[in-house]
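User: Last request for today: this protein with zinc ion, please.
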Amino acid sequence: MQNTEEIWRLVDTRKAAFEQMSDRIWGMPEIAYTETKSCAEHTAMLEQEGFRVTRDVAGIPTAVMGEAGEGGPVIAILGEYDALPGLSQEAGVPEQRPLPGNGYGHGCGHNLLGSASLLAAAAVKDYLAAHGIKGRVRYYGCPAEEGGAAKGFMVRAGVFKDVDIAISWHPAAFAGVNEAKSLANMRVDFSFAGRASHAAAAPHLGRSALDAVELMNVGVNYMREHMPSDARIHYALLDAGGIAPNVVQAHAKVRYLIRARNLPELNRLVERVKKVADGAALMTETRVTSKVVSAVSNLLPNAPLERAMHDSLMRLGPPPFDDTDRAFAAQIQATLSEEDIESAFRRVGLPMQSGLTLCDGIVPLDSKTAPMMGSTDVGDVSWVVPTVQARGATYAIGTPGHSWQLTAQGKMPAAHKGMVHVAKVMAGTAIDAIRDETLVARAKADHQARVRDTPYVCPLPPDVEPPIEMSKAA
Ligand SMILES: [Zn+2]
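Assistant: Here's the final one, the structure of the complex with zinc ion:
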């Protein structure tokens, strides 16, 4: 459909305010479920734009939703605003320079993510009003993407129940449609309980929970050879049993993050890891209990929406980077390895082009990409609503995710251009879906075909709640 110039203009007219909002959120990095100030920024912008605002979405204080329009299809545009620990970094400098403070930083570009999504939703709102078109646009401000699985809790609470399609994006090196491949994952805490004792005088009376954790890790590391090659298992020690080597450690806790291609594979793998934990407890005469902390589903593709978004991108063309943007991107690239840069091209299925610092095209829809081995809580939304995501080109090619280099680029003119560009892509896709009702119907048919044999089962156990006490403490 050729209706996009007007929607692009509606994005452009308000872009300055959203670039400033993104910069403010960059400057107040808040981690999972503590995004009080960032969520307040989004709420204030929703109110200023005249959206009907719902706070505490799904009972989460840092989740917000704004709706505009009447009747018609419901188009959701999803945003995020959480930061990461350990990625504090001064903006606009090509060397590692953490800022004083708590060490948090926007190392995944979610300051841009939420701002571009809300920008797109605001433009769609005005377009619907200007043309008297029946249809509703909703902006969902989603917290805690990084390890918090907030969208899974939001899905479980039914907040997407009446949504027809969902649109989102993620900052990236290249512009294109995000290939819907990600891993389902589950975080499980294993707590071992033993018996304390004097480690020298009475070692035979002690039973070490720390030994149990070590043996569990050894067991899981041996298991790696015998699991699907695209599964992933990582662990972090939450409690090593104390600081005294002369006390047999009576308690120890390890957090496992287990990832697999889909939920059935994930569940099988989790059961195997639990058996290894039981084995470690048996060997050490300790007791083990496990608790799921969070879980997300893999992403489901949607062919009609991906095609529509790609068409929207092709009409728009690549982001308008200039020589100053490229010069800074080259300075960032100088801090990266050849392998970083090569793998960025490989990830989107493009041949390596040395000297290319910023995206100058659109990744073809049929590009043979290397599948994303991470996870996202957008996965759960994609199981209940036809969902499509863009990649927005906002940083130098080769910048690793979750790196100081990514934080450093989050306020640059290139980042602003990339976020405005992707807002146009998302708004254009939303307008296409509202104007062409066959697109929503085709998206739904595609979705139903994908879930027919394996209906969605929420991977979050019913007794697991979002850890919102973190937001109260913040
Ligand atoms: Zn991210």
